[in-house]
Amino acid sequence: MIMRTAVALLACLALLLSPAPAPAEGPQATYVLRVPAPKGESAQRLLGLGYDVLEQRDGDDLFVVGDPKTAGKLRTDGYPATVEKTMPPAPWAPRSIGDATYYGGYRTITAHLAHLDEVAKAHPGLATVVDYGDSWRKTQGNGGYDLKALCVTRKGPGDCALTPTAPKPRLFVMGQLHAREITTGDMAWRFIDDLVGSDLTAMLADVEVWVVPIANPDGVEIVESGGDSPVLQRKNANGTCTSGSRGVDLNRNAGSHWGEVGSSTSKCSETYRGPRADSEVEVQALESLWRKLYRDTRAPGDTAAASADTTGAVVSMHSYGDYVLFPWGWSTQKTGNDAALRKMANDMAALSGYTAGQPGEVLYNASGATDDWVYDDLGVPSFVWEIGTDSGRCGGFLPPFSCQEDAHWPKVRPMLVSAMKAAKRPY
């Protein structure tokens, strides 16, 4: 009896001392925090601390994405944050391998790549698929994807050739450089279909359009892995991090004023700029492609203007904030082509109800962005569109898929038409 009692006591003690089972993993709530950070030193300090600062401003306030601990960290750093919005996790339903869509209809990377091939096959006189590089994971032999673009025009001699002396002006449009900005990939998909199947086709007689629907496929693979609860991955997949998301921010890695304001040296920061300018293969591939597509018409120097015979335009679609942004982003200093860039931006913004301006005029300064690089290196007008509002049913990073047709596309399509026209004689 004594022996049985002793055994029972030991068993109970072992149960009490054994580690508790790990909580089931699943999506967590995300918070958008309102942070007082007026333009200038306060805003730039906030970015330099490595917080996930959104491309959104309301008067003197910026907005930061974080978890329940982020507000406390902000207060410690001198920013009295308040919760603006809580984004509860959607019911957990991971994407299955082979799915063509996730989160109610958004297309996966494999679906996007197949779409390019399908359009080119169905419209051989209009569309050509171009493989312009490999994602970081593919260069490591660990999965990954081809980096692909679609050239769309009424094909004639010299069209879609990788040479800056091609006969037609070129508009270049890309989506999901920041992986979690899923609206932009869908806008690219719709633009491709519109180019080959609507009144826009007639415009292709005298303009060439290049579309990269997903510029950061490794990052997007992380996003879509969450299925009905997409992962808010912003960066690519190159790197490790124990207290945040892995990767490098591809829109802080380009070699125009790299390493200056609005970027971080912390590998876990959402604005981690990478170990050196142009370190990431996705950025290298884009820059190489742009140099093959556009003539360099601008002398070196921050104040030099591109020549009046410059053709083309580049649009990088992001979300969210309802902005049309143009260089410079690293400073509020004006470019040599400020008047023309400002006019084009205002024309686009007037069609959508967006606000136009340099990033430092309406948000904050940030360096190492691809749009600055395009203008800096080549003189080609370049723009960032921040698509979508911060609030409401269709606001934020993850709007319901129906919002693309109902809310976003009706605003983005007219801007794309405006950009096609402006590419012919931008200055």
Characteristic terms for this protein:
single chain; 427 residues; alpha/beta; eight-stranded mixed sheet; four-stranded antiparallel sheet
Q: Helices and strands, in N-to-C order?
A: HEHEEHEEEHEHEEHEHHEEHEHHEH
- How many whole angstroms does the radius of gyration measure? 23 Å
Helix content: 25-40%
Uncertain stretches = 1-26
Biggest pleated-sheet summary: 8 strands, mixed
Instruction: Work out the number of β strands.
Output: 14
Report how far apart the termini are.
97 Å
Class from helix and strand fractions: alpha/beta
Give, in spatial order, the strands making up the sheet with the most strands.
7-8-10-9-11-14-12-13
Write down the oligomeric state: single chain
Shape: globular
- Determine the number of helices (DSSP H or I, runs of at least 4 residues): 12
Mean pLDDT, to the nearest integer, reads 91
How much of the residues is beta strand, in percent? 15-25%
Keywords: Hydrolase, Metalloprotease, Protease, Signal, Zinc
Family: Belongs to the peptidase M14 family.
Organism: Lentzea pudingi
Pfam family, one: Peptidase_M14
What's the gist of this structure?
The chain is an alpha/beta fold and 427 residues long. Helices cover 32% and strands 17% of the residues. It contains twelve helices and 14 strands.
Task: Report on this structure.
The protein has helices at residues 2-17, 41-48, 70-76, 109-122, 136-139, 182-197, 217-224, 281-293, 338-352, 359-362, 370-378, 402-422; strands spanning 30-36, 52-58, 61-66, 82-87, 101-102, 106-107, 127-134, 146-152, 170-174, 208-212, 313-318, 323-325, 355-357, 382-386. It has 427 residues and is α/β, with parallel strands linked by helices. It contains twelve helices and 14 strands. Helix 9 links the parallel strand 12 and strand 13. Residues 235-245 have a biased composition (Polar residues). Pfam families: Peptidase_M14. Its cofactor is Zn(2+).
